[in-house]
Amino acid sequence: MTIKQTMGNFKTLQLLDAYELAIDCNIITSIADSKGFIVYANQKFCDVSKYTQHELIGQNHRIINSAHHPKAFFADMWQTIGKGNLWHKEIKNKAKDGTYYWVDTVIVPILDEEKKITHYLSLRTLITDRKLLEEKNAQYLSSLEILLVMTSNKIKRPLATCLKQMNTLDKENIDKNEIRKIVENLKLSTTELIAFTNELDTFIRDMEK
Question: Do 165 and 201 fall within a single domain?
Fold first, then answer.
């Protein structure tokens, strides 16, 4: 059952008013003409982008382009909506004050009676917090990979040296010079391990910031 069927007893204008109120409270909304120039921007759009309606109307959406996405990204968008199809992607935008924000974007072509595109309706929801969390998690995983490499390279070798020297002590008839050499090697390996534990401690503290 469609909304129209469900709300059949309500006047169309009443339903549209309710929709507009709900959308304006939660959704960044804009309407562009067939050439992509903004003809309408709701207050939510202004609040998030830091531009006034006067500054947005008549502009292309490039006014909030963050330069994060490649040209092919928007080429795909225009190719899709130009065919009258819905386009749905996540976009990183740039506000007037230079700050960045992420939006989950849906663009719907508006057709006239002859099925020609007259306008494009864009609906966007803020997802900045989620994207920042994703980036933080990605950085954390990258740090763990680096930590694994550090541990593998800087612990195995000194430990292997220690084990080799200790095995040498099991031999019979070891002279004092050889014992001194073994002790020096053990001291060197121990110093390397201590230095690495300090480096590891600093690295982990940086990860937690």
Answer: yes
**Closest listed residue to residue 68, CA positions, set 101, 46, 45:** 101
Q: Give the number of domains in the chain.
A: 2
61, HSE (Cβ side, Cα atoms, 13 Å): 25
For the four alpha carbons of 182, 183, 188 and 194, in that order, the dihedral sign comes to positive
pLDDT tens track for 92-146: 999 999 999 999 999 999 999 999 999 999 999 999 989 888 887 777 667 667 6
Starting at the edge strand found earlier in the chain, the sheet holding 117-126 runs 38-41, 28-33, 117-126, 100-111, 87-94
The answer to whether the predicted template modeling score (pTM) of the entire model surpasses 0.70 is no
Same domain, 175 and 104: no
Distance CA 122, CA 195 (A): 56
Say if residue 29 is in the same domain as residue 92: yes
Q: By three-state DSSP, how is residue 59 classified?
A: coil
Cα dist. 140→136, 145, 153, 180 in Å? 6, 9, 20, 44
Using DSSP's 3-state secondary structure scheme, residue 53 falls into helix
Give the domain range for residue 51.
Answer: 3-126
The encoded tokens of residue 145 equal: 């990979």
Whether residue 35 sits in one domain with residue 113: yes
Q: How many CB atoms lie within 10 A of CB 96?
A: 14
Nearest to 82 by CA among 125, 116, 59: 116
Specify which residues 46 forms β-bridges with.
none
Distance CA 143, CA 148 (A): 9
